[in-house]
Amino acid sequence: MLPQVIIIGRPNVGKSTLFNRLVGKKLALVDDQPGVTRDRRSGDAEIAGLKFQVVDTAGWEDDDPDTLPGRMRKQTEVSLVGADAAMMVIDARAGVTTLDEEIALWLRNQKVPVVMVCNKAEGKAAEAGIYESYALGFGDPVPVSAEHGEGIADLFGALWPIIGDSEARIQAEEAAADYTKQQNEIAARAAAEEAGEEYVPEEEDLSAPLKLAIVGRPNAGKSTLINRLLGEDRLLTGPEAGITRDSIAVDWVWHDPAMGEDREIRLIDTAGMRKRAKVTEKLERLAVQDAKLAIDFAEVVVLLLDATQGLEHQDLKIASQTLEEGRALMIAINKWDIAEDASSLFNGVREALNEGLSQVRGVPLFAVSAKTGKGLDTMLGAAFTLRASWSKRVPTAGLNRWFEDAINANPPPAPKGKRIKMRYITQSSTRPPRFIVFGNRLEMLPTSYERYLINGIRKNLGFDSVPVRITFKGSSNPYHVRQQASKQERTKG
C-alpha cells in the first residue's frame, strides 16, 4: 500500500480540483456549487517521483449529525483513521474562516501530521489569506493554484519529510515484485512451449483483483450493498435519492466460503442512472457520465434492481449499454427481504430479461438483500466464474474442430446460388472474447447465421452468457483487384 494522504477542508475551497491535479486525471466531479463531493475517493498521485495515495473528502460542514451534510462530515472524520498525512486546504482569497478554525482545532487533536495548503493563491488577492493561515498552527503554508497547476511541486518539500521513507521502501518492494513477475512469466512461457500448449499472457491471470461495478437506478441500494459487503459504513447512504455522485472504487478482500480462500475485489459504486429525459441538472449528467466510465473500467457489472419496483425499461437500457461495451453482466434483485410474491417476481424478471436482452440470453440472475446479506456470497462467487468465462481463450486447434462440426451440422446458405466458403476461425482477443472468421463471400452471410455461430460458441466452448464478438474477413482476390484498377484507369482515360 502506498502512503495515504487525506485532503480535508470546508466546501468549495478546491479539494477535488487539487485531487484531480495530483492524480493527473479528472476523476472527481468538480463544479462551482459547494457540496459536490459526498463520498471519499482515492487515487494514485505522484509529485517529482514521490508516489502516494491521495484521498478526496466531502466538504466539512457544521450541521446536525443526522442530516446529509452531517453524515458527510462523519465520513470525512473516519477517512483520517490509518492515514499517513493530511492536507488541510483553505481558500487563500477568502482567508481563514470560522469553519477553517474549527477544522484546524479538530486536526490538531489528531495524531496525523498536517500540511497547510492555501489554494487559489494566484495573484495579490491571496496574500492576506496566506499570512492568516499561520495562525492555524500547521507551520509554513504551501501556496498553490490547483486549477492552474501552480505550486504543486512545492508540495513535494512538505510531504517528503512525512512520507518519503515509507514511499522509498514501497518502491523497492514494487521493483522486486516486478522482477519476480517477469521471471515467472518467462518460466510459464517456456513450460507452455515445452508442453506444446498455448501460453496465456499475464494480463489474463485470474488471480488479479476482480473489478466489480454496481450499477442501477437511484435508490436501488447500491451503496448500502457495498457497505454490507465491507462490514462498515464506507459509503454515504440514506433515504435521499441520488446521494452518490462520483464513482467510488474500494479495494477489498472477500473470504470465499465455497473455496475457503481470500479473493481480492475492487468494488465500484456508481451514481443512479435515470432516464435521460429526467436528467436536467448538470451535476447529475456528469455523475451519469462517470457511472458509464465505471462500466468501461469494470470486468463484471452487477445491475441492481429494486424488488419493490421490479424490472423497468431503464434497467434494460442500462443492461444493453453494459453488454454493448463488452462487459460481463449479472442482475441482482435487491431488497428481497421485503419482496411481495417473490417467486412470481423472480420468474417475471427472468422472462423479461430473456425477451429484452436477445443478444445475450441467460444472464445470471440473483435474489439478494443488502440489509440481511442474503445471496451476496453466492453472487460474488458467480462473478468470479463469469469473469473466468469472459477471460477464456480457446486453443486454435480445438476451436477449429468445433467450427468444422458446426459448419457440417448447419452449412452456410448459398444466396443467389453463390457458395459461401468459410475456411477457419481464430480467437483474436479476450475480455470480451473476440473471434475472426476467414473465408470467401462472407459479406453475403445472413445475420441469422452469425447468431448461430455465436450461440454455438457460448454453448459449446464455455462462454455461457458473456458477450461474444465475431468479425468476418474475406480473402482478397489479387486478379479481381487488378481487374478493378484497370477498369478505373480506362474510365479516367
Give the structure's gist in a few sentences.
This protein is of the alpha/beta class. Helices cover 39% and strands 20% of the residues.
What does this structure look like?
With 493 residues, the protein is an alpha/beta fold. It has 3 domains: 161 residues, 3-Layer(aba) Sandwich (Rossmann fold); 179 residues, P-loop containing nucleotide triphosphate hydrolases (Rossmann fold, 3-Layer(aba) Sandwich); 84 residues, K homology (KH) domain (GMP Synthetase, Chain A, domain 3, 2-Layer Sandwich). The strands form 3 sheets. The chain has a 6-stranded mixed beta sheet, sandwiched between helices. It has a 6-stranded mixed beta sheet with strand order 8-9-7-10-11-12, sandwiched between helices. A hairpin with a 4-residue loop joins β8 and β9. α11 packs across α12. The termini are far apart. 35% of the residues are buried.
Structural key phrases:
493 residues, KH_dom-like_a/b, disordered C terminus, GMP Synthetase, Chain A, domain 3, alpha/beta, GTP-binding, Rossmann fold, nucleotide-binding, GTP binding, six-stranded mixed sheet
- Would you state the CATH class of the largest domain? Alpha Beta
CATH fold call of the largest domain: Rossmann fold
Main sheet record: 6 strands, mixed
Structural category: alpha/beta
How would you spell out the order of helices and strands?
A: EHEEHEHEHEHEHEEHEHEHEHHEEHEH
Query: Helix content range of the residues, please?
Result: 25-40%
Calculate Rg over CA atoms.
Answer: 28 Å
- Structure annotation, total helices: 13
How many beta strands in the DSSP annotation? Answer: 15
Q: Which oligomeric state applies? A: single chain
Tally the structural domains: 3
Subunit structure: Associates with the 50S ribosomal subunit.
Domain EngA-type G: 3-167, 210-391
Binding site for GTP 1: 9-16, 56-60, 119-122
Organism: Pontixanthobacter rizhaonensis
